[in-house]
Amino acid sequence: MNRIKTGAVVTxxxxxxxxxxxxxxxxxxxxxxAISERILFNEKSGVWLGLRLNSKNSLDFTWxxxxxxxxxxxxx
Length: 76
Fold this sequence. Notes:
The chain is built from 1 helix and 5 strands. By secondary structure, it is mostly beta strands. The chain has one domain (9-75). Strands 4-3-2-1-5 form a 5-stranded antiparallel β-sheet. Strand 3 (48-53) and strand 4 (61-65) form a beta hairpin. The longest helix has 4 residues, at 17-20. The radius of gyration is 12 Å and the shape is globular. It starts with 8 loop residues before the first strand and ends with a strand.
């Protein structure tokens, strides 16, 4: 897999019922703003992506686990 960089654009697809209810998150483009191996609210190890919705005036931001998120698949 290519090295992930901030500024990359990804799409989220739902895995859980929770995610399916987040219609603003589905099939929209997200910009990688942060990359971390740890986040404070989850003990799962691995790469986490801090994503901002690629939309004018959007304040939507979310963290997703790159390979094992419980709610979303990350598509490059």
